[in-house]
Design goal:
The longest helix is centred in the middle third of the chain and has 40 residues. The strands form 2 sheets. A 3-stranded mixed β-sheet has the order 3-5-4, with helices on both faces. Strands 1-2 form a two-stranded antiparallel sheet. The two termini are 27 Å apart. It has 23 helices and 5 strands. It is globular. By secondary structure, the protein is mainly alpha-helical. Helices cover 68% and strands 4% of the residues.
């Protein structure tokens, strides 16, 4: 029974420029003019504190504009405007980075005495630390090259999105021939209630992708090549930058994957159980990934919000109240429309103290889970302090931390739904769905990591054509799933936009990391009165210390040890045992 009423659409008009696109363009022009003025003063001498304060504020404004761009991309906005807006934001970010690089170059040419005098004139000591620390690590020329590469990657990401969004899948579904967009076809391929039609759309979508695979392979090759060239200039390994941005060491990543691999045979046992239930030798990738449609439980948006708030009440009443607050302020958009991508996102407006959440809600348990996931991101953003900085948050915001918060929320919600469900058959179906979500984090994402890692190794020497990319992707999936499936997905590398993110490479392992870390934190939260305060402080200090140090500081956990990861995996094994005995 519905107890909470919520609007389907968000409110964008109460942000700075609302949906007045002319006002938005004027705002960006004003930012550019301010940056040009700062550049002119920089050419005449070392920048003073008032310029640095202005620059810090501009960085926040650009970040808000970028978040607003992601929101606009789900609205009925002219594609040419969105492309132009994305390019303008990328150029502004490059302009900021060039100003910082020039400042660091000027400091490099100054005597120690002059640097001390300049430092003494700056009251905001954070600025000094950021500039001098970065100056020590990266030369001005390298930063300018990185800025150019970043802008080019952003353009390639936009080309990928336009190409993917312009795809048309022609298919007969019993009501005449349909022409589906990529988003519609992908949604139906994974969520159509009729398994036969699900498979038909999946097959036709892949046929359409096959015809365009060489173009997508070219884009991906170029993006990886640009990153590898930048790595050579910086004399770093392609994974080093990702690990640094995520606040973890290679040791921790390897220990986590070792723990996952050591239990892969246990995970495969569940795949065998599910195949036996389906009276098959093995399930296919598509059958496993779309099995959530077999869960008959329907959850309205109001019921989802109520369940999410109740699931979090015992952990921290402030969180459950925050969820209600987010809904009442119209920060969430759950309307189904063609302009929305598959999945969801949470766009932060940290300077404004707000967020906006987008997803297509369809009353399924998976869309309820997505809502909980995105609310976890919003809670995380709410804890982060709006401190003056000369860095963009993408340089300090750790995805490992972000996914810990979001998966913490979704896992708490799923556990609540299972506990609250009285019908034994539905409870078992939800439990199976939960296990499959868990295996997605530990097996499917493991395959994505293996693929990206292998691709970069091959790409050091040569480009890979579409067939080679497809073969590599299939090999990595087979390894990650322990050869436990009958068929794999040849076009994951096209369908998943994460591979084409301009700002982030290896947009995969942080999910596995966050999943296992969140399970561990949920265990710690049980009966722990200090957890609420520790968890908030942990999230609020995002980027101030590497995640490994923060987790040690607040929870005294050593992530370089197998014990923690194995304990988290044990929770999943308990779920599998419970499912088998249902």
């Amino acid at each position: 029974m519905d107890t909470i009423k919520t609007p389907a659409r968000w409110n964008l008009n109460n942000l700075q420029y609302g949906l007045d696109l002319d006002k938005l363009k004027k705002h960006l022009r004003n930012i550019k003019e301010k940056l040009t003025d700062i550049e002119a003063r920089s050419a005449l001498g070392i920048l003073k504190e008032n310029d640095l304060v202005t620059l810090s504020k501009i960085i926040k404004q650009i970040e808000s504009a970028e978040s607003f761009y992601y929101c606009l991309a789900t609205e009925n906005i002219e594609t040419s405007f969105l492309t132009s807006l994305n390019a303008s934001i990328s150029k502004l970010k490059s302009q900021v980075r060039c100003i910082i690089s020039d400042l660091q170059e000027s400091l490099h040419n100054m005597s120690e005495k002059e640097i001390v005098e300049w430092s003494n004139s700056i009251s905001q000591k954070r600025f000094i630390a950021e500039i001098l620390n970065d100056r020590a690590r990266t030369s001005s020329e390298e930063k300018k090259i990185s800025s150019f590469i970043g802008e080019t990657l952003s353009c390639l990401e936009d080309i990928y999105r336009q190409l993917r969004n312009n795809l048309k899948v022609r298919i007969e579904l019993g009501n005449g021939e349909n022409e589906l967009s990529f988003t519609d076809a992908d949604n139906l391929a994974m969520s159509h209630p009729d398994p036969t039609k699900r498979h038909l759309v999946f097959k036709e979508l892949n046929h359409t992708l096959e015809l365009q695979a060489n173009v997508f392979a070219s884009i991906y090759n170029q993006m990886a090549g640009l990153r590898l060239n930048e790595n050579r200039i910086k004399n770093v390994d392609y994974l080093d930058e990702s690990l640094k941005l995520n606040g973890i060491s290679k040791t921790t990543l390897n220990v986590m994957w070792d723990a996952v691999d050591s239990y892969s045979n246990k995970f495969s046992e569940y795949l065998k159980i599910r195949a036996k239930e389906a009276e098959k030798g093995k399930l296919s990738w598509h059958e496993l990934m779309s099995s959530s449609q077999d869960v008959t439980l329907k959850i309205t948006i109001s019921q989802a919000i109520e369940g999410i708030t109740k699931s979090l009440e015992n952990i921290d009443s402030k969180i459950s109240e925050y969820v209600k607050d987010v809904i009442s302020k119209d920060w969430v958009d759950v309307e189904q429309r063609k302009t929305k991508p598959h999945g969801g996102f949470c766009a932060p407006f940290i300077a404004e103290g707000e967020s906006r959440i987008s997803l297509s809600y369809d009353d399924s348990i998976d869309s309820a889970r997505r809502l909980a996931h995105e609310l976890g991101h919003a809670w995380h953003f709410q804890q982060m302090k709006d401190v003056p900085s000369l860095r963009f948050s993408e340089e300090t915001f750790e995805m490992t931390m972000a996914e810990t918060s979001s998966i913490f929320f979704e896992t708490a919600f799923i556990n609540y739904v299972i506990k609250d469900t009285r019908d034994v058959s539905i409870k078992k179906a939800i439990l199976g769905w939960k296990i499959e979500r868990s295996l997605n984090y530990l097996m499917s994402i493991r395959g994505a990591f293996l693929f990206e890692n292998s691709f970069y190794e091959y790409r050091k020497n040569e480009q890979l054509d579409a067939k080679q990319v497809e073969k590599l992707s299939l090999q990595c999936q087979e390894k990650a799933f322990g050869n436990g499936l009958s068929e794999y997905e040849p076009y994951v590398w096209i369908k998943y936009g994460q591979f084409y993110q301009a700002d982030v490479s290896f947009y995969n392992y942080p999910y596995s990391f966050g999943f296992l870390l969140s399970i561990g934190l949920l265990e710690i939260s049980k009966g722990n009165e200090l957890f609420q305060k520790k968890f908030q402080e942990f999230l609020s200090e995002t980027g101030m210390l590497p995640l490994e140090q923060l987790i040690k500081k607040h929870f005294n956990l050593d992530l370089t040890q197998h014990e923690f990861w194995e304990k988290s995996i044990q929770r999943l094994l308990e779920d599998i045992n419970q499912y088998e005995n249902c």
